[in-house]
Amino acid sequence: MPAEQLKKIFDDADAEGFVHVREVDGPGEVGLNPDAPVVLASVFKVPVALEYARQAAAGLIERTERLTVTAADKDGGIGTSGCADDVSLTLRDLAHFMLTQSDNAATDVLLRRVGLDNVHATLAQLGLTRTRLIGGCRELLDTVLTDLGVSSWEEMEGMGEERIRGLSVLDPEKTTSGTPRETTSLLAAIWRDEAGPAEACEEVRRIMGNQVWPHRLSSAFPDGIRISAKTGTLMGVRNEAGVVEYPDGKRYAAAVFVRTRSLGGRLPRADASIGRAALAAIEHLRAEGRP
Predict the structure, then answer these.
(1) Element (H or E) spanning 102, and its range?
(2) Of 129, 191, 252, 290, whose CB has the highest number of CB atoms within 10 Å?
(3) Domain 3-288, CATH 3.40.710.10 — does that match?
């Protein structure tokens, strides 16, 4: 797969792309800037879910333990983040909302319970030395207000693009970040039951398979091909990482990180480029593997 082919997909979407796709059960791989540092955005929720599942499998926490999402955790977004009242959920349901809907409040409550240091220790154990979290969703969003010197999101209206582009949350050297290659390494380990106990890996796979968003990675693949994935979104950032499973049993871990030239909220061409790039890379790997 020439890098030029992948680059053209992102050029057509008025964006820059960072890609790594690998066979889960073989040596084949394809990439475009696969070792460049990238902003993970909500893709960081995958290692949080893995840490939760590992601790649950080890008996360190109970999946049915209940925690409460309060107003202090909410950002007005998806899932419990947008609920008007306090919400009490089990740990396993917090993980469900975190991965299937990208619920920020559920993420922060669960991350406090399993511990950021423990997430980093697991990443280090797996050899993912370039993947790091600066905290939960609240920490990420608070850096935006701090960088801009404002106290509310309403005050951001009309803010110049140059100031937005300079935000710490958009700089992989200053925020939660990783690389496309490390992301597919994590996914492949989860799918091969090598990222922790088989029970833990299966739980993460099952939840990721129920993600509700079809507009990025899934958009390029027909019915009958299973997609288990996690999106990530910020101003000027469109991501998705997941595993694509074909009816013939072949499995591919794909991580696509996109920096858009527009800061708009609705960027369908950029969203679709994620699926197009993953499909092109996988088709190349499948063609290489034909007898």
Answers:
(1) none
(2) 252
(3) yes
Q: For residue 178, which phi and psi values (nearest 5 degrees)?
A: -165, -155
pLDDT tens digit string along 174-203?
999 999 999 999 999 999 999 999 999 999
| DSSP secondary structure letters along 161-225 | HHHHHT-GGG-TTTSSEE-HHHHHHHHHHHHTT-SS-HHHHHHHHHHHTT----SSGGGGS-TTS
Residue 107, class by beta-carbon neighbours within 10 Å (0-12 exposed, 13-18 middle, 19+ buried)? Answer: buried
Q: What is the pTM of this model?
A: 0.96
pLDDT at 167 over 90: yes
**Sequence-ordered list of residues with C-beta below 8 angstroms from that of 274, at least 6 positions apart, any chain:** 216, 217, 219, 238, 239, 240, 256, 258
**130 burial level (CB within 10 Å; 0-12, 13-18, 19+):** middle
Looking at residue 220, its amino acid is A
pLDDT tens by residue, 202-261: 999 999 999 999 999 999 999 999 999 999 999 999 999 999 999 999 999 999 999 999
Q: Is the alpha carbon torsion for 125, 130, 131, 133 positive or negative?
A: positive
Cα–Cα distance, 209 to 100 (Å, whole number): 8
